[in-house]
Amino acid sequence: MAPAPCWWYFRVNGITPGETITIRLRGSTATVPKPGAPPQKPLASSWAMPAQATFSNDGQTWLHTEKGKRQDEWMIYTLKPESASVFVAWGPPYTPSTAAKFVRAMSEKSPHAKATELCRSRGDRAVPMLHVQEGERTKEQRFGVWVQARQHAWESGSSWVAQGFAEWLLGDGADAAWLRQHAEIFIVPIMDVDNTATGNGGKDAVPQDHNRDWSAQPHWNEIIAAQRMVSGLIEEGRMDVFLDLHNPSPDDPTFFYVLSPELLKEPMIGLRDRFVELAYARISKIKPLIPMSNKPKVTGANYHPLWRQISANWVSMNGNPHTVSVCLETIWNYPNSTTEGYRAVGSNLAAAVREYLAERPAKP
Ligand SMILES: [Zn+2]
Fold first, then answer.
1. Is residue 179 in a domain?
2. Residue 188: which domain range?
């Protein structure tokens, strides 16, 4: 059972090319489990009904449909496929095999990238991870950068953001080379591979939402492994930038979530604000436009009872005094929320990490 039945992805066969097909979507009437609460109605159906659905003739290139039409509780999309079979989805899909293929392609393209695994999931699936560093600097002489997406399985756009980050990092630019030479970077395009593989939403998963599992005893293998590696960076005094990538509510723009400054000490607050400023300056200028709020949303004790176990909060509270740890929510219900748009967010985020770290004192 999907605690957050809000995304969908299927294939339509037997189409006469050129014919118009109609997809009618209605919210689920099922009740769903929620940790520590009685079964309840799922999220509002608006979470599952983007203004434009996504489709592909080949499973590779993803395009938006025309705007759907709302009719009572129905959302109706029409499209005219050019092939006998078409994939239709809530947003551009990004599956565990996409992640595995991507990290492998990057490692074949660049001598500085290594395709590896964060761990095996509880469902015994590989959790692909990309490890990037260039040159002779020792680990101690490198900034530590951790990028993870998809603690919530339905948020497929966040994996495309992670991919855009990695593509920029392994590109030909001088800034990318600087980052590879001065940092050690870990990128996990999909944390919750099991719920992604089975098509579950992942949010409010039972017994624990991945992004509320950063406790002393995590339930999920990915969190155990990520927490162990991040703790290693903290022990080495180089947990410099931690980025947790998500997609927000249907009406939200792109924005950062940060931990309330009352819960933090300097220099963490000022450094984090500086990083957010640099990232906003870039992402808000992406063309075509990706709407972004320059006001981060603040989380803390009032946000959720398990606020201490949210990954970016956990890293802020357990990190080094200079750790920058934030969550980036990238808009998904927008005409430019496409693979291109998401990857542009990722590349600009990576450029912001480079710019931010270049302002920091070099590691001795
Ligand atoms: Zn999320």
1. yes
2. 96-358
240 Cα to the center of ligand 1, angstroms: 22
Q: Is residue 350 part of a domain?
A: yes
Q: Which two tokens stand for residue 93?
A: 């899909």
Cα–Cα distance between 45 and 211 in angstroms, integer? 22
Whether pLDDT at 265 is above 70: yes
d(CA 146, CA 111): 20
Average per-residue pLDDT in the chain?
A: 94
Mean pLDDT (whole number) for 335-356: 98
Whether residue 268 sits in one domain with residue 162? yes
CA of 328 to the centre of ligand 1 (A): 9
Please tell me whether residues 124 and 218 are part of one structural domain.
Answer: yes
- CATH assignment of the domain containing 17: 2.60.40.3120
Distance CA 316, CA 268 (A): 8
Ligand 1 centroid to residue 52 C-alpha, Å: 20
Residue 14 Cα to ligand 1 midpoint, Å, equals: 35
**DSSP-assigned letter for residue 321:** T
Digit-coded pLDDT (tens) for 33-83: 776 777 777 778 889 999 999 999 999 999 999 999 999 999 999 999 989
Ligand 1 midpoint to CA 151 (Å): 7
CA dihedral 271, 273, 276, 282 (to 10 degrees): -90
Is residue 1 situated within a structural domain?
A: no
Q: What CA–CA distance (Å, rounded) separates 337 from 330? A: 8
Q: Could you tell me the distance, in angstroms and rounded to a whole number, from the CA of residue 113 to the centre of ligand 1?
A: 27
Q: What is the pLDDT of residues 267-279, one digit of tens each?
A: 999 999 999 999 9
Same domain, 61 and 124: no
What is the helix (H) or strand (E) element at residue 12, kind and residue range?
strand 9-12
Number of folded domains that form the chain: 2
User: Where a domain ends, among 89, 120, 151?
Assistant: 89
- Which residue's entry shows tokens 């959302």? 75
Q: Tell me how far the alpha carbon of residue 191 lies from the centroid of ligand 1, in angstroms.
A: 11
Residues with CB under 5 A from ligand 1 (ion): 152, 155, 246
Same domain, 128 and 76: no
Distance 330 CA to ligand 1 centre (A): 10
Q: How far is the CA of 39 from the centre of ligand 1 (A)?
A: 21
